[in-house]
Design goal:
By secondary structure, the protein is of the alpha+beta class. Helices cover 24% and strands 24% of the residues. The protein has 3 domains: 113 residues, no CATH class; 131 residues, Immunoglobulin-like; 408 residues, 3-Layer(aba) Sandwich (Rossmann fold), CATH 3.40.50.200. It is built from 15 helices and 32 strands. The strands form 10 sheets. Strands 15, 16, 17, 18, 20, 22, 23 and 26 form an 8-stranded mixed beta sheet that branches. Helix 1 packs across helix 11 and helix 8 crosses helix 9. The radius of gyration is 27 Å and the shape is globular.
């Protein structure tokens, strides 16, 4: 009953056609008026714990309305309270040690008062989901060949940059030293536009700058880590002169030269098609999406934004270097950090650096907080919601209004009860005026195991009906659907689906599809039905997905070739992932919230009903993505997936955003005009109960 009421109130304040639109409730109001039974249940559980303490050490920390109880106590007390035995386990590859119970018992007095327990029977989160780098693309697949393994290829307009793993003539990886007989790399550069005679370049053993990963420094050492290479592997990094500048398509052929027994011998060729596009930087995003950053120095102090991170290292030095060099025009500001795991330097920092750098740059001038919940369970979301509730408890805190989450997994890997609990908390966030963006995944219709199955594997929480799911795109040279930016003067670029592609070196495929459990929410039924009707025979077989369920993503943004800073001061480009598009778009909407607050308007809150209504009445607010599909994953391309087309599709959603037009439409008190972006008209809402003119905003 409580959850039904929560859902009803959530729908009211999120529906731009409802009289209660934007009338968000405070954390206190939600628990006093909607979830008022929660505190009673929490008190019963807390009383039971204290009664059963029996003089043992037992510390209980509760949130204001006791929806979360955090219990700290010795092992023997846990064993007694829950009639169990905690055993010690160690992660096979990470070495992490934890205590877990195979089973436990709850007494009847509290059994129906508890929805979920974390840290008792689940294994802690050991997450290694990083945004993928061009360095990790399928060029690196193991194969029975003595061709050098080309991990990275780039063109700065005057030089090609190569990063290559050395393979000896006998097809074995070079180990602990450069191969004895290795002499040089030979390179053929075939311009596919001019079709002139290939350019031949030779890079000597000395010029190849090869190093054993164990002993490597600088960029070679960082690349060894990025590729996950063994310590004994040999990696080489070098430049060769380029002719033709940017945007020239090439076939690049690379082979190794050996002298064996006085004879010149060559390895097999590695052949890589290549076409340069600009790095994705804050400047490029600003130009591509019509962003105005003129107000970044005068932000509303009530406005903050946040990143949610799991098992990742947060390197302040990287952020400061990014702020000085990549974000110097964007007034990037870091706020508070909640949690402790973020300080573990043994954890990967790529995800955290990417997320914080781009939400801070695109949300220029807005303080960015970072949540790092303790990894006591298999997902980490419950711990985050407990952190957020504790933050709400202290009324002096300024709680962020916009959140970006770059993590997720196969929906079928979550227990239904846990999904329900997470969704309830997402509804609470929306009802209190918060906006949650989630990356839609990087494996198309597959899950992260990259297997083609008879049923698609939708991502969660991307497929939740209570978040805004963000897909990914990429830019390609084109002759149609042209977009022009100053980073590529006079060059027609088309924004298409981000999908695994050797030519563009994109190594992810935008996640999308249909939820396993959630039926289609009312806000998207019309758009999704239009897609299903028009797609016709282009749809995958019906057994692969449930066409009646929630479709995702909702919107998209560039997800290819991001330039970030890691390791304190190391520029790293070629980062791909919807874990880039989500924080970037979150920052953009933070700036809209900021302007609304200055004008005395409410924050946007849960966006989806507004987004789909905007797409219907103001289609120019979106850049429609009509090229590409999501049948690929990081290892292979499957027979079926969804294809992009005009209007909504479960590949890139409604498209990418025209931020300037969004800002204009959403920061003027009035009613949107269906014909002209700068004129307002009436949208009439008719129901059985009422006929009135309802403000769209």
């Amino acid at each position: 009953e409580q959850v039904e009421n929560l859902k009803r109130q959530f729908d009211y304040v999120s529906d731009p056609l409802h009289p209660k639109y934007g009338q968000h409730m405070t954390y206190d109001e939600i628990h006093q008026q909607v979830l008022n039974k929660t505190i009673e249940n929490g008190q019963i559980v807390e009383n039971w714990l204290k009664k059963e303490q029996n003089g043992d050490e037992l510390r209980i920390t509760s949130t204001a309305y006791k929806e979360f109880l955090v219990v700290e106590t010795p092992v023997h007390v846990v064993n007694r309270l829950f009639e169990t035995t905690l055993s010690t386990y160690q992660h096979q590859t990470k070495g992490q040690i934890t205590l877990k119970a195979k089973q436990f018992q709850l007494p009847k007095i509290i059994d129906d008062k508890i929805d979920h327990i974390v840290g008792l029977s689940q294994f802690p989160l050991v997450r290694d989901r990083r945004p993928r780098s061009i360095l990790q693309q399928q060029l690196a697949k193991k194969r029975q060949s003595n061709a050098p393994r080309l991990f990275f290829l780039d063109n700065d307009g005057t030089h090609f940059l190569f990063v290559v793993q050395l393979i000896c003539f006998n097809s074995r990886n070079a180990s602990n030293a450069v191969c004895d007989h290795f002499q040089s790399f030979q390179i053929l550069l075939q311009n596919l536009l001019t079709l002139t005679k290939p350019l031949i370049r030779t890079v000597t053993r000395t010029e190849a700058n090869c190093a054993v990963c164990r002993k490597a420094t600088g960029s070679i050492s960082a690349s060894c880590d990025t590729y996950d290479l063994n310590d004994d592997s040999v990696l080489c990094g070098f430049f060769v002169d380029a002719v033709g500048g940017f945007f020239q398509p090439y076939n690049v052929s690379l082979r190794s030269e050996f002298i064996i027994g006085g004879k010149q011998m060559f390895s097999d060729y590695t052949i890589q098609p290549f076409e340069q596009i600009p790095d994705t930087t804050p400047n490029l995003l600003v130009h591509l999406y019509n962003v105005n950053t003129s107000n970044s120095k005068e932000r509303d102090p009530r406005n903050r934004q946040a990143i949610l991170g799991f098992n990742s290292y947060y390197n302040r030095a990287s952020f400061k270097f990014f702020a000085k060099h990549r974000g110097k025009n964007y007034n990037v500001r870091i706020g508070k950090v909640y949690g402790t795991d973020f300080s573990n330097k043994s954890l990967d920092e790529t995800e955290t650096s990417l997320d914080i750098e781009y939400i801070a740059a695109m949300g220029s001038g807005i303080l960015t907080d970072y949540f790092s919940p303790p990894s006591t369970s298999e997902n980490g979301y419950i711990e985050f919601f407990a952190q957020l509730a504790q933050l709400e408890k202290n009324k002096t805190n300024i709680v962020p209004l916009v959140y970006s989450i770059s993590y997720g997994g196969n929906t079928r890997g979550f227990k239904i009860k846990l999904l329900h609990n997470i969704d309830v908390n997402f509804m609470k966030m929306g009802l209190s005026g918060k906006t949650v963006f989630v990356s839609s995944g990087d494996d198309g219709v597959s899950s992260d195991d990259s297997v083609c199955r008879q049923e698609f594997q939708p991502d969660y929480p991307a497929s939740s009906s209570y978040v805004t799911s963000v897909g990914g795109t990429q830019l390609v040279p084109s002759k149609t659907n042209c977009r022009y930016i100053s980073e590529a003067p006079n060059r027609c670029l088309e924004e298409i689906v981000a999908y695994t592609n050797l030519l563009t070196r994109c190594v992810i495929t935008s996640g999308g599809g249909f939820s396993v459990y959630d039926s289609a929410p009312s806000y998207q039924k019309k758009a999704v039905q239009s897609y299903l009707s028009s797609a016709g025979k282009r749809l995958p077989p019906s057994k692969f997905f449930n066409r009646s369920n929630r479709a995702y993503p909702d919107i998209s943004l560039l997800a290819h070739n991001y330039a970030i800073v890691v390791a304190g001061n190391v520029d790293k480009d070629g980062i791909d992932g919807t874990s880039a598009s989500s924080p970037a778009v979150a920052g953009l909407f933070s700036t809209i919230n900021d302007q609304r607050l200055k004008l005395g308007m409410k924050p946007l809150g849960f966006l989806n009903p507004l987004l789909y209504k905007l797409a219907e009445n103001q289609p120019n607010a979106f850049y429609d993505i009509i090229t590409g599909e999501n049948n690929c994953n990081k290892k292979t391309c499957c027979s079926y997936g969804f294809k992009a087309q005009k209007g909504y599709d479960p590949v890139t959603g409604l498209g990418t955003i025209n931020h300037g037009l969004f800002m204009k439409l959403l920061t003027q008190k009035g009613i949107l005009d269906t014909q002209h972006a700068n004129i307002y008209a009436t949208i009439t809402r008719v129901s059985e109960r009422e006929t009135d003119e309802t403000k769209f905003l």
